[in-house]
Amino acid sequence: MVLTYERFDSLLRLNPLFLKDIRIVVIDEIQNLGEEQRGPRLENIIMRLRNFENLQLLALSGTIGNPEQLAQWLKCKLVVSKNRPVPLNTFILTAEDKNEAIKKLVATFLKKNCQTLVFVSRRRDAESLAEKLSNITRPFISVNEISELNHMISNSLKYEKTMLTNKVAKLALNGTGFHHAGLSTLTRSFVEEAFKKGLIKVLVCTTTLSTGINFPAHLVILRDLLIAKTDYEDIEINEININRVFQILGRAGRPTYGERGYSIILVHNENEKKLFQSKIFNIENGKYIPKFEPVTSKLAESGLDEALLVFIYENPGVSEEEIVEFFRGSFWCFQRGENCRESIRELLLIPGESIYEIVKANSKTAEFEAALKIQDSEVKILKSDADRLEAKVRSNMCSFSPNGPHCNCIIFSSLRTFLCRHLTKLALYVDNYLPDFKGVISQSLERKYVLDFLLSNRLVRKIRTAEKNVYETTNFGNMVVKLYLRPKTAIIIRESLKIGINDMKDFCEMFGKVLALEGRSVPPQFQVAILEVYENRIRLEEVPERFNISPGDFESLLDLSGWILHAIATIAKLEGYKDVSEKAKDLTRKLGVSISAKLNTAL
Question: Is 304 helix (H, G, I), strand (E, B) or coil?
Protein backbone atom coordinates (compact mmCIF):
# COMPACT_ATOMS: atom_id res chain seq x y z
CA MET A 1 0.00 0.00 0.00
CA VAL A 2 1.17 3.51 -0.79
CA LEU A 3 -0.44 6.15 1.44
CA THR A 4 0.06 9.65 2.79
CA TYR A 5 1.04 9.99 6.45
CA GLU A 6 -2.47 11.17 7.27
CA ARG A 7 -4.23 8.32 5.50
CA PHE A 8 -2.06 5.78 7.30
CA ASP A 9 -2.78 7.55 10.60
CA SER A 10 -6.53 7.29 9.98
CA LEU A 11 -6.13 3.56 9.24
CA LEU A 12 -4.23 3.04 12.49
CA ARG A 13 -7.12 4.63 14.38
CA LEU A 14 -9.66 2.32 12.73
CA ASN A 15 -7.40 -0.67 13.54
CA PRO A 16 -8.34 -2.97 10.62
CA LEU A 17 -7.35 -6.62 10.97
CA PHE A 18 -4.73 -6.53 8.20
CA LEU A 19 -2.54 -4.14 10.22
CA LYS A 20 -1.28 -7.06 12.32
CA ASP A 21 0.22 -8.57 9.15
CA ILE A 22 2.35 -5.51 8.32
CA ARG A 23 6.07 -6.30 8.62
CA ILE A 24 7.72 -3.25 7.07
CA VAL A 25 6.80 0.43 6.94
CA VAL A 26 8.70 2.81 4.65
CA ILE A 27 8.47 6.49 5.59
CA ASP A 28 9.56 8.72 2.72
CA GLU A 29 10.68 12.31 3.31
CA ILE A 30 11.18 11.74 7.05
CA GLN A 31 12.41 15.35 7.34
CA ASN A 32 8.72 16.34 7.28
CA LEU A 33 8.80 15.41 10.97
CA GLY A 34 9.95 18.99 11.53
CA GLU A 35 6.97 20.62 9.78
CA GLU A 36 4.46 22.46 11.98
CA GLN A 37 1.41 21.21 10.09
CA ARG A 38 2.23 17.56 9.33
CA GLY A 39 5.14 16.85 11.67
CA PRO A 40 3.27 16.15 14.95
CA ARG A 41 0.99 13.59 13.30
CA LEU A 42 3.94 11.85 11.65
CA GLU A 43 5.80 11.74 14.97
CA ASN A 44 2.73 10.30 16.67
CA ILE A 45 2.43 7.61 13.99
CA ILE A 46 6.01 6.50 14.63
CA MET A 47 5.47 6.48 18.42
CA ARG A 48 2.49 4.14 18.02
CA LEU A 49 4.20 1.90 15.48
CA ARG A 50 6.76 1.03 18.14
CA ASN A 51 4.12 -1.13 19.82
CA PHE A 52 3.89 -3.36 16.74
CA GLU A 53 5.71 -6.68 16.99
CA ASN A 54 8.25 -7.75 14.36
CA LEU A 55 7.92 -4.48 12.46
CA GLN A 56 10.82 -3.09 10.44
CA LEU A 57 10.96 0.66 9.88
CA LEU A 58 12.74 2.22 6.90
CA ALA A 59 12.98 6.03 6.89
CA LEU A 60 14.21 7.90 3.81
CA SER A 61 15.44 11.44 3.31
CA GLY A 62 17.74 13.28 0.95
CA THR A 63 17.86 16.47 3.03
CA ILE A 64 18.35 16.14 6.76
CA GLY A 65 20.92 17.79 9.01
CA ASN A 66 20.82 15.47 12.05
CA PRO A 67 20.51 11.92 10.64
CA GLU A 68 22.49 10.37 13.51
CA GLN A 69 20.11 11.77 16.14
CA LEU A 70 17.03 10.70 14.19
CA ALA A 71 18.44 7.20 13.64
CA GLN A 72 19.11 6.84 17.37
CA TRP A 73 15.54 7.82 18.20
CA LEU A 74 14.13 5.44 15.58
CA LYS A 75 16.52 2.71 16.81
CA CYS A 76 17.50 2.22 13.19
CA LYS A 77 20.84 1.62 11.55
CA LEU A 78 21.99 4.74 9.72
CA VAL A 79 22.89 4.13 6.08
CA VAL A 80 24.42 7.12 4.29
CA SER A 81 24.79 7.15 0.52
CA LYS A 82 26.39 10.04 -1.33
CA ASN A 83 25.99 8.39 -4.70
CA ARG A 84 23.95 10.34 -7.24
CA PRO A 85 23.13 8.48 -10.47
CA VAL A 86 23.27 11.73 -12.46
CA PRO A 87 26.04 14.21 -11.45
CA LEU A 88 24.79 17.66 -10.45
CA ASN A 89 26.75 20.89 -10.83
CA THR A 90 25.52 23.72 -8.59
CA PHE A 91 26.38 27.42 -8.99
CA ILE A 92 25.48 30.64 -7.20
CA LEU A 93 25.44 33.48 -9.74
CA THR A 94 25.05 37.22 -9.22
CA ALA A 95 22.64 39.22 -11.36
CA GLU A 96 21.27 42.72 -10.89
CA ASP A 97 18.37 41.83 -13.17
CA LYS A 98 17.48 38.22 -12.44
CA ASN A 99 14.87 37.91 -15.19
CA GLU A 100 17.38 39.01 -17.84
CA ALA A 101 19.88 36.48 -16.50
CA ILE A 102 17.22 33.77 -16.71
CA LYS A 103 16.48 34.66 -20.34
CA LYS A 104 20.16 34.25 -21.25
CA LEU A 105 20.50 30.94 -19.39
CA VAL A 106 17.31 29.57 -20.94
CA ALA A 107 18.44 30.57 -24.45
CA THR A 108 21.81 28.86 -23.93
CA PHE A 109 20.23 25.58 -22.83
CA LEU A 110 17.54 25.68 -25.53
CA LYS A 111 20.31 25.66 -28.14
CA LYS A 112 21.52 22.41 -26.54
CA ASN A 113 17.96 21.02 -26.72
CA CYS A 114 17.72 21.05 -22.92
CA GLN A 115 14.69 21.88 -20.77
CA THR A 116 14.63 24.24 -17.80
CA LEU A 117 12.69 24.51 -14.53
CA VAL A 118 12.57 27.97 -12.95
CA PHE A 119 11.42 28.32 -9.32
CA VAL A 120 9.89 31.60 -8.11
CA SER A 121 8.15 32.61 -4.88
CA ARG A 122 4.69 33.70 -6.01
CA ARG A 123 2.02 32.46 -8.38
CA ARG A 124 1.71 35.71 -10.30
CA ASP A 125 5.50 35.75 -10.77
CA ALA A 126 5.32 32.26 -12.29
CA GLU A 127 2.69 33.44 -14.76
CA SER A 128 4.37 36.72 -15.71
CA LEU A 129 7.85 35.21 -16.13
CA ALA A 130 6.46 32.39 -18.27
CA GLU A 131 4.95 35.03 -20.57
CA LYS A 132 8.26 36.90 -20.80
CA LEU A 133 10.14 33.70 -21.67
CA SER A 134 7.68 32.70 -24.41
CA ASN A 135 9.41 35.04 -26.88
CA ILE A 136 12.63 33.07 -26.38
CA THR A 137 11.11 29.58 -26.55
CA ARG A 138 8.81 30.20 -29.55
CA PRO A 139 11.50 29.60 -32.24
CA PHE A 140 12.44 26.27 -30.63
CA ILE A 141 9.04 24.59 -30.93
CA SER A 142 8.33 22.68 -34.14
CA VAL A 143 5.17 22.42 -36.23
CA ASN A 144 4.76 18.78 -35.19
CA GLU A 145 5.08 19.73 -31.53
CA ILE A 146 2.43 22.45 -31.93
CA SER A 147 0.15 19.89 -33.56
CA GLU A 148 0.66 17.46 -30.66
CA LEU A 149 0.02 20.24 -28.15
CA ASN A 150 -3.22 21.21 -29.89
CA HIS A 151 -4.30 17.58 -29.70
CA MET A 152 -3.48 17.45 -25.97
CA ILE A 153 -5.30 20.73 -25.34
CA SER A 154 -8.45 19.58 -27.13
CA ASN A 155 -8.46 16.30 -25.17
CA SER A 156 -7.21 17.33 -21.72
CA LEU A 157 -8.57 20.85 -21.37
CA LYS A 158 -11.84 20.72 -23.30
CA TYR A 159 -13.89 21.06 -20.10
CA GLU A 160 -11.62 23.72 -18.62
CA LYS A 161 -12.95 27.13 -19.64
CA THR A 162 -11.24 29.47 -17.18
CA MET A 163 -9.00 32.43 -17.98
CA LEU A 164 -6.14 30.68 -16.20
CA THR A 165 -6.45 27.56 -18.34
CA ASN A 166 -6.66 29.64 -21.53
CA LYS A 167 -3.42 31.35 -20.52
CA VAL A 168 -1.78 27.94 -19.91
CA ALA A 169 -2.84 26.68 -23.34
CA LYS A 170 -1.65 29.83 -25.13
CA LEU A 171 1.77 29.75 -23.47
CA ALA A 172 2.18 26.01 -24.07
CA LEU A 173 1.85 26.59 -27.83
CA ASN A 174 4.82 28.95 -27.48
CA GLY A 175 6.89 26.41 -25.55
CA THR A 176 6.54 27.78 -22.02
CA GLY A 177 4.36 26.97 -19.05
CA PHE A 178 3.69 27.80 -15.42
CA HIS A 179 2.71 25.55 -12.54
CA HIS A 180 1.27 26.43 -9.13
CA ALA A 181 -1.39 25.26 -6.69
CA GLY A 182 -3.99 27.64 -8.15
CA LEU A 183 -4.27 25.54 -11.31
CA SER A 184 -6.92 22.84 -11.47
CA THR A 185 -5.86 19.20 -11.29
CA LEU A 186 -6.55 18.70 -15.01
CA THR A 187 -4.55 21.77 -15.97
CA ARG A 188 -1.61 20.82 -13.75
CA SER A 189 -1.62 17.32 -15.25
CA PHE A 190 -1.59 18.80 -18.75
CA VAL A 191 1.39 21.04 -17.93
CA GLU A 192 3.32 18.18 -16.32
CA GLU A 193 2.68 15.82 -19.23
CA ALA A 194 3.62 18.43 -21.84
CA PHE A 195 6.87 19.14 -20.00
CA LYS A 196 7.71 15.44 -19.68
CA LYS A 197 7.15 15.02 -23.42
CA GLY A 198 9.49 17.92 -24.15
CA LEU A 199 6.73 20.06 -25.66
CA ILE A 200 7.04 22.71 -22.96
CA LYS A 201 10.67 23.79 -23.03
CA VAL A 202 10.70 26.02 -19.95
CA LEU A 203 8.43 25.61 -16.94
CA VAL A 204 8.17 28.36 -14.31
CA CYS A 205 6.78 27.13 -11.01
CA THR A 206 6.37 27.74 -7.31
CA THR A 207 7.50 25.13 -4.77
CA THR A 208 4.67 22.83 -5.93
CA LEU A 209 7.28 20.96 -7.99
CA SER A 210 10.09 20.92 -5.42
CA THR A 211 9.35 17.26 -4.63
CA GLY A 212 7.57 14.41 -6.34
CA ILE A 213 7.85 12.85 -9.77
CA ASN A 214 10.96 13.17 -11.92
CA PHE A 215 11.04 15.74 -14.70
CA PRO A 216 13.40 15.99 -17.69
CA ALA A 217 15.04 19.21 -16.51
CA HIS A 218 18.72 19.61 -17.37
CA LEU A 219 18.76 23.05 -15.73
CA VAL A 220 17.06 24.26 -12.55
CA ILE A 221 17.11 27.95 -11.66
CA LEU A 222 16.13 29.17 -8.19
CA ARG A 223 15.30 32.85 -8.65
CA ASP A 224 13.83 33.74 -5.25
CA LEU A 225 15.22 33.00 -1.81
CA LEU A 226 11.98 34.13 -0.18
CA ILE A 227 8.71 32.23 -0.19
CA ALA A 228 5.32 33.96 -0.22
CA LYS A 229 2.56 32.25 1.74
CA THR A 230 -0.82 33.69 0.78
CA ASP A 231 -3.66 33.64 3.29
CA TYR A 232 -6.01 35.68 1.03
CA GLU A 233 -6.13 38.58 3.46
CA ASP A 234 -2.36 38.79 3.99
CA ILE A 235 0.84 37.64 2.31
CA GLU A 236 3.49 36.26 4.63
CA ILE A 237 7.05 36.36 3.26
CA ASN A 238 9.53 33.90 4.74
CA GLU A 239 13.08 32.93 3.91
CA ILE A 240 13.12 29.63 2.09
CA ASN A 241 14.03 26.58 4.17
CA ILE A 242 17.54 25.32 3.38
CA ASN A 243 16.38 21.72 3.01
CA ARG A 244 13.77 22.92 0.51
CA VAL A 245 16.54 24.71 -1.42
CA PHE A 246 18.38 21.43 -1.92
CA GLN A 247 15.18 19.63 -2.87
CA ILE A 248 14.66 22.26 -5.57
CA LEU A 249 18.23 22.09 -6.83
CA GLY A 250 17.99 18.31 -6.95
CA ARG A 251 15.23 18.45 -9.57
CA ALA A 252 17.91 18.86 -12.23
CA GLY A 253 19.54 15.85 -13.82
CA ARG A 254 17.16 13.05 -12.88
CA PRO A 255 17.75 9.40 -13.84
CA THR A 256 16.77 8.45 -17.43
CA TYR A 257 16.61 12.15 -18.37
CA GLY A 258 20.24 12.99 -19.04
CA GLU A 259 23.86 12.42 -18.08
CA ARG A 260 24.38 15.60 -16.04
CA GLY A 261 22.28 18.26 -14.34
CA TYR A 262 22.90 21.93 -13.60
CA SER A 263 21.33 23.99 -10.82
CA ILE A 264 21.75 27.72 -10.41
CA ILE A 265 20.86 29.99 -7.49
CA LEU A 266 20.51 33.65 -8.43
CA VAL A 267 21.50 36.41 -5.98
CA HIS A 268 21.81 40.16 -6.46
CA ASN A 269 25.42 40.82 -5.46
CA GLU A 270 28.67 39.34 -4.14
CA ASN A 271 27.81 40.04 -0.49
CA GLU A 272 24.54 38.14 -0.81
CA LYS A 273 26.41 35.36 -2.60
CA LYS A 274 28.97 34.98 0.21
CA LEU A 275 26.28 35.09 2.88
CA PHE A 276 24.06 32.50 1.23
CA GLN A 277 27.01 30.32 0.26
CA SER A 278 28.17 30.13 3.88
CA LYS A 279 24.62 29.39 4.99
CA ILE A 280 24.00 26.39 2.75
CA PHE A 281 27.48 24.89 2.26
CA ASN A 282 30.38 23.63 4.35
CA ILE A 283 33.76 23.58 2.61
CA GLU A 284 35.69 20.34 3.10
CA ASN A 285 38.95 19.72 1.22
CA GLY A 286 38.00 22.40 -1.28
CA LYS A 287 34.59 20.81 -1.96
CA TYR A 288 31.19 22.34 -1.22
CA ILE A 289 29.17 20.03 1.04
CA PRO A 290 25.44 20.75 1.57
CA LYS A 291 24.63 22.07 5.04
CA PHE A 292 21.20 20.59 5.69
CA GLU A 293 19.01 21.94 8.50
CA PRO A 294 18.39 19.63 11.47
CA VAL A 295 14.91 18.25 12.06
CA THR A 296 13.32 19.51 15.27
CA SER A 297 10.16 18.07 16.82
CA LYS A 298 7.07 20.29 16.68
CA LEU A 299 4.95 17.99 18.86
CA ALA A 300 4.81 20.39 21.81
CA GLU A 301 3.93 23.35 19.56
CA SER A 302 0.88 21.78 17.97
CA GLY A 303 -0.76 18.39 18.03
CA LEU A 304 -0.03 17.35 21.62
CA ASP A 305 -3.73 17.31 22.55
CA GLU A 306 -4.53 15.14 19.52
CA ALA A 307 -1.65 12.75 20.23
CA LEU A 308 -2.83 12.28 23.83
CA LEU A 309 -6.46 11.81 22.79
CA VAL A 310 -5.53 9.14 20.25
CA PHE A 311 -3.30 7.33 22.77
CA ILE A 312 -6.12 7.19 25.35
CA TYR A 313 -8.56 6.08 22.64
CA GLU A 314 -6.28 3.23 21.59
CA ASN A 315 -5.47 2.31 25.21
CA PRO A 316 -8.65 2.67 27.33
CA GLY A 317 -7.99 2.57 31.06
CA VAL A 318 -4.50 4.04 30.72
CA SER A 319 -2.86 5.60 33.80
CA GLU A 320 -0.96 8.87 34.15
CA GLU A 321 2.34 7.01 34.46
CA GLU A 322 1.61 5.07 31.27
CA ILE A 323 0.83 8.34 29.50
CA VAL A 324 4.14 9.82 30.61
CA GLU A 325 5.96 6.65 29.54
CA PHE A 326 4.37 6.78 26.09
CA PHE A 327 5.44 10.38 25.51
CA ARG A 328 8.94 9.57 26.71
CA GLY A 329 9.18 7.73 23.40
CA SER A 330 8.61 10.93 21.40
CA PHE A 331 11.29 12.65 19.34
CA TRP A 332 10.42 15.81 21.28
CA CYS A 333 11.47 14.09 24.51
CA PHE A 334 14.51 12.45 22.90
CA GLN A 335 15.84 15.86 21.86
CA ARG A 336 15.51 17.17 25.42
CA GLY A 337 17.61 14.47 27.04
CA GLU A 338 17.63 13.34 30.66
CA ASN A 339 15.13 15.85 32.07
CA CYS A 340 12.37 15.06 29.60
CA ARG A 341 10.31 13.00 32.05
CA GLU A 342 9.53 16.02 34.22
CA SER A 343 9.05 18.18 31.12
CA ILE A 344 6.38 15.76 29.94
CA ARG A 345 4.59 15.79 33.29
CA GLU A 346 4.63 19.59 33.27
CA LEU A 347 3.35 19.72 29.71
CA LEU A 348 0.60 17.15 30.16
CA LEU A 349 -0.44 16.88 33.77
CA ILE A 350 1.10 18.91 36.58
CA PRO A 351 0.13 22.50 37.47
CA GLY A 352 2.76 25.19 37.55
CA GLU A 353 4.13 25.33 34.01
CA SER A 354 6.03 28.51 33.24
CA ILE A 355 4.79 31.47 31.24
CA TYR A 356 7.71 30.83 28.90
CA GLU A 357 6.41 27.32 28.07
CA ILE A 358 2.81 28.53 27.82
CA VAL A 359 3.73 31.29 25.39
CA LYS A 360 6.05 29.08 23.36
CA ALA A 361 3.28 26.51 22.96
CA ASN A 362 0.91 29.26 21.77
CA SER A 363 3.34 30.81 19.27
CA LYS A 364 4.57 29.65 15.90
CA THR A 365 8.34 29.15 15.82
CA ALA A 366 9.00 32.09 13.48
CA GLU A 367 6.94 34.49 15.62
CA PHE A 368 8.55 33.29 18.87
CA GLU A 369 12.03 33.80 17.42
CA ALA A 370 11.04 37.24 16.12
CA ALA A 371 9.77 38.17 19.60
CA LEU A 372 13.14 37.35 21.13
CA LYS A 373 14.69 40.03 18.89
CA ILE A 374 12.41 42.79 20.21
CA GLN A 375 14.16 44.90 22.85
CA ASP A 376 12.67 45.35 26.35
CA SER A 377 12.82 49.11 25.77
CA GLU A 378 10.28 48.68 22.94
CA VAL A 379 7.61 47.52 25.44
CA LYS A 380 5.54 50.18 27.23
CA ILE A 381 2.95 49.04 29.78
CA LEU A 382 -0.19 51.21 29.55
CA LYS A 383 -2.56 49.45 31.96
CA SER A 384 -2.27 46.56 34.41
CA ASP A 385 -4.92 45.27 36.80
CA ALA A 386 -6.20 41.97 38.17
CA ASP A 387 -7.51 40.62 34.88
CA ARG A 388 -6.19 42.89 32.12
CA LEU A 389 -2.87 44.02 30.67
CA GLU A 390 -2.50 46.64 27.97
CA ALA A 391 0.78 47.67 26.38
CA LYS A 392 2.39 49.18 23.33
CA VAL A 393 4.97 46.91 21.71
CA ARG A 394 6.87 48.87 19.09
CA SER A 395 3.96 50.68 17.41
CA ASN A 396 1.34 47.98 18.05
CA MET A 397 -1.40 48.02 20.71
CA CYS A 398 -1.49 44.71 22.59
CA SER A 399 -3.67 43.34 25.37
CA PHE A 400 -4.32 40.21 27.44
CA SER A 401 -7.79 40.02 29.01
CA PRO A 402 -10.53 37.47 29.82
CA ASN A 403 -11.72 37.99 26.23
CA GLY A 404 -8.40 36.64 25.01
CA PRO A 405 -5.22 38.13 23.58
CA HIS A 406 -5.38 40.89 20.97
CA CYS A 407 -2.97 42.87 18.81
CA ASN A 408 -3.79 45.35 16.05
CA CYS A 409 -1.00 44.07 13.77
CA ILE A 410 -1.72 42.31 10.47
CA ILE A 411 0.20 39.20 11.54
CA PHE A 412 -2.11 38.51 14.51
CA SER A 413 -5.24 38.67 12.33
CA SER A 414 -3.82 35.96 10.05
CA LEU A 415 -2.58 33.61 12.80
CA ARG A 416 -6.07 32.92 14.21
CA THR A 417 -5.25 30.73 17.23
CA PHE A 418 -1.59 31.69 17.74
CA LEU A 419 0.17 34.70 19.25
CA CYS A 420 1.98 37.23 17.10
CA ARG A 421 5.52 38.39 17.94
CA HIS A 422 4.24 41.49 19.78
CA LEU A 423 1.96 39.55 22.14
CA THR A 424 4.68 36.96 22.63
CA LYS A 425 7.16 39.67 23.57
CA LEU A 426 4.68 41.27 25.99
CA ALA A 427 4.08 37.92 27.73
CA LEU A 428 7.82 37.27 28.04
CA TYR A 429 8.29 40.81 29.37
CA VAL A 430 5.65 40.16 32.04
CA ASP A 431 7.35 36.87 32.92
CA ASN A 432 10.65 38.70 33.54
CA TYR A 433 9.54 41.99 35.11
CA LEU A 434 5.91 41.72 36.28
CA PRO A 435 5.56 38.29 37.95
CA ASP A 436 2.39 39.34 39.81
CA PHE A 437 0.57 39.52 36.47
CA LYS A 438 1.50 36.09 35.12
CA GLY A 439 -2.00 34.88 35.96
CA VAL A 440 -3.48 37.41 33.55
CA ILE A 441 -1.54 35.79 30.71
CA SER A 442 -2.60 32.26 31.69
CA GLN A 443 -6.24 33.26 32.11
CA SER A 444 -6.31 35.16 28.81
CA LEU A 445 -4.93 32.16 26.93
CA GLU A 446 -7.32 29.82 28.79
CA ARG A 447 -4.24 27.72 29.38
CA LYS A 448 -5.00 24.26 30.67
CA TYR A 449 -2.70 21.29 30.80
CA VAL A 450 -3.37 19.02 27.91
CA LEU A 451 -5.07 16.32 29.95
CA ASP A 452 -7.20 18.92 31.76
CA PHE A 453 -8.13 20.38 28.37
CA LEU A 454 -9.39 16.99 27.15
CA LEU A 455 -11.24 16.35 30.44
CA SER A 456 -12.93 19.75 30.64
CA ASN A 457 -14.10 19.52 27.03
CA ARG A 458 -15.61 16.06 27.55
CA LEU A 459 -13.26 14.29 25.15
CA VAL A 460 -11.85 12.13 27.95
CA ARG A 461 -13.20 10.95 31.32
CA LYS A 462 -11.35 10.06 34.50
CA ILE A 463 -12.11 6.75 36.22
CA ARG A 464 -11.10 6.57 39.86
CA THR A 465 -9.88 3.20 41.06
CA ALA A 466 -8.59 2.10 44.44
CA GLU A 467 -4.98 2.41 43.31
CA LYS A 468 -4.78 5.19 40.70
CA ASN A 469 -6.60 7.40 38.23
CA VAL A 470 -7.10 5.95 34.77
CA TYR A 471 -8.58 7.51 31.64
CA GLU A 472 -10.76 6.60 28.69
CA THR A 473 -12.32 8.54 25.83
CA THR A 474 -15.97 9.63 25.89
CA ASN A 475 -18.41 9.02 23.04
CA PHE A 476 -17.54 12.50 21.79
CA GLY A 477 -13.81 11.73 22.05
CA ASN A 478 -14.27 8.45 20.19
CA MET A 479 -16.12 10.27 17.44
CA VAL A 480 -13.42 12.95 17.10
CA VAL A 481 -10.69 10.33 16.72
CA LYS A 482 -12.63 8.37 14.09
CA LEU A 483 -13.52 11.54 12.16
CA TYR A 484 -9.80 12.44 12.04
CA LEU A 485 -10.48 15.90 13.40
CA ARG A 486 -8.17 17.93 15.57
CA PRO A 487 -9.73 18.24 19.06
CA LYS A 488 -9.91 22.04 18.89
CA THR A 489 -11.76 21.86 15.57
CA ALA A 490 -14.33 19.44 16.97
CA ILE A 491 -14.84 21.65 20.03
CA ILE A 492 -15.42 24.70 17.81
CA ILE A 493 -18.06 22.73 15.88
CA ARG A 494 -19.80 21.72 19.11
CA GLU A 495 -19.65 25.23 20.58
CA SER A 496 -21.02 26.71 17.34
CA LEU A 497 -23.96 24.33 17.60
CA LYS A 498 -24.67 25.54 21.13
CA ILE A 499 -24.56 29.19 20.10
CA GLY A 500 -27.10 28.44 17.40
CA ILE A 501 -27.24 27.84 13.65
CA ASN A 502 -30.43 29.62 12.60
CA ASP A 503 -30.16 29.39 8.83
CA MET A 504 -27.91 28.29 6.00
CA LYS A 505 -26.00 31.59 6.14
CA ASP A 506 -24.99 30.85 9.75
CA PHE A 507 -24.11 27.32 8.74
CA CYS A 508 -21.87 28.46 5.87
CA GLU A 509 -20.05 30.88 8.18
CA MET A 510 -19.34 28.07 10.65
CA PHE A 511 -18.34 25.76 7.80
CA GLY A 512 -15.78 28.25 6.49
CA LYS A 513 -14.37 28.74 9.99
CA VAL A 514 -13.92 24.99 10.46
CA LEU A 515 -12.15 24.67 7.10
CA ALA A 516 -9.70 27.36 8.21
CA LEU A 517 -9.10 25.63 11.55
CA GLU A 518 -8.00 22.53 9.68
CA GLY A 519 -5.12 24.49 8.21
CA ARG A 520 -6.55 25.54 4.85
CA SER A 521 -6.50 29.08 3.48
CA VAL A 522 -10.13 30.02 2.93
CA PRO A 523 -10.97 33.12 0.85
CA PRO A 524 -13.67 35.26 2.51
CA GLN A 525 -15.87 34.95 -0.56
CA PHE A 526 -15.96 31.13 -0.36
CA GLN A 527 -18.80 31.10 2.19
CA VAL A 528 -20.84 33.48 0.03
CA ALA A 529 -20.16 31.34 -3.04
CA ILE A 530 -21.34 28.07 -1.52
CA LEU A 531 -24.44 29.79 -0.13
CA GLU A 532 -25.33 30.96 -3.66
CA VAL A 533 -24.74 27.43 -4.97
CA TYR A 534 -27.01 26.05 -2.25
CA GLU A 535 -29.73 28.56 -3.16
CA ASN A 536 -29.40 27.67 -6.89
CA ARG A 537 -28.36 31.20 -7.83
CA ILE A 538 -25.21 29.99 -9.60
CA ARG A 539 -23.80 26.67 -10.76
CA LEU A 540 -20.85 25.13 -8.94
CA GLU A 541 -18.55 25.34 -11.96
CA GLU A 542 -19.17 29.10 -12.20
CA VAL A 543 -17.72 29.82 -8.75
CA PRO A 544 -13.99 30.22 -9.59
CA GLU A 545 -14.61 32.85 -12.29
CA ARG A 546 -17.49 34.65 -10.54
CA PHE A 547 -15.78 34.85 -7.14
CA ASN A 548 -12.16 35.15 -8.23
CA ILE A 549 -11.05 31.91 -6.58
CA SER A 550 -8.27 30.00 -8.33
CA PRO A 551 -9.58 26.67 -9.73
CA GLY A 552 -6.96 24.66 -7.85
CA ASP A 553 -7.81 26.35 -4.56
CA PHE A 554 -11.52 25.79 -5.15
CA GLU A 555 -10.93 22.11 -5.96
CA SER A 556 -8.88 21.70 -2.80
CA LEU A 557 -11.59 23.30 -0.67
CA LEU A 558 -14.29 21.12 -2.24
CA ASP A 559 -12.22 17.99 -1.64
CA LEU A 560 -11.88 18.94 2.02
CA SER A 561 -15.55 19.89 2.22
CA GLY A 562 -16.82 16.31 1.93
CA TRP A 563 -14.90 15.32 5.02
CA ILE A 564 -15.72 18.44 7.05
CA LEU A 565 -19.43 18.36 6.20
CA HIS A 566 -19.58 14.70 7.21
CA ALA A 567 -17.86 15.60 10.50
CA ILE A 568 -20.31 18.45 11.18
CA ALA A 569 -23.29 16.21 10.38
CA THR A 570 -21.99 13.45 12.66
CA ILE A 571 -21.22 15.73 15.62
CA ALA A 572 -24.53 17.57 15.22
CA LYS A 573 -26.40 14.27 15.31
CA LEU A 574 -24.45 13.08 18.37
CA GLU A 575 -25.17 16.36 20.20
CA GLY A 576 -28.87 16.32 19.30
CA TYR A 577 -28.94 19.01 16.59
CA LYS A 578 -30.76 17.04 13.92
CA ASP A 579 -31.66 20.13 11.84
CA VAL A 580 -27.99 21.14 11.53
CA SER A 581 -27.06 17.58 10.62
CA GLU A 582 -29.60 17.72 7.78
CA LYS A 583 -28.23 21.09 6.62
CA ALA A 584 -24.77 19.52 6.35
CA LYS A 585 -26.14 16.62 4.33
CA ASP A 586 -28.10 18.99 2.06
CA LEU A 587 -25.01 21.09 1.36
CA THR A 588 -23.00 17.92 0.72
CA ARG A 589 -25.46 16.94 -2.00
CA LYS A 590 -25.49 20.46 -3.49
CA LEU A 591 -21.70 20.60 -3.68
CA GLY A 592 -21.52 17.12 -5.16
CA VAL A 593 -18.94 16.00 -2.60
CA SER A 594 -18.86 12.94 -0.40
CA ILE A 595 -17.02 11.29 2.46
CA SER A 596 -14.78 9.64 -0.14
CA ALA A 597 -13.05 13.01 -0.44
CA LYS A 598 -11.67 12.30 3.01
CA LEU A 599 -10.33 8.96 1.88
CA ASN A 600 -8.86 10.06 -1.43
CA THR A 601 -7.82 13.68 -1.32
CA ALA A 602 -8.08 15.47 2.01
CA LEU A 603 -5.95 12.77 3.60
Answer: helix
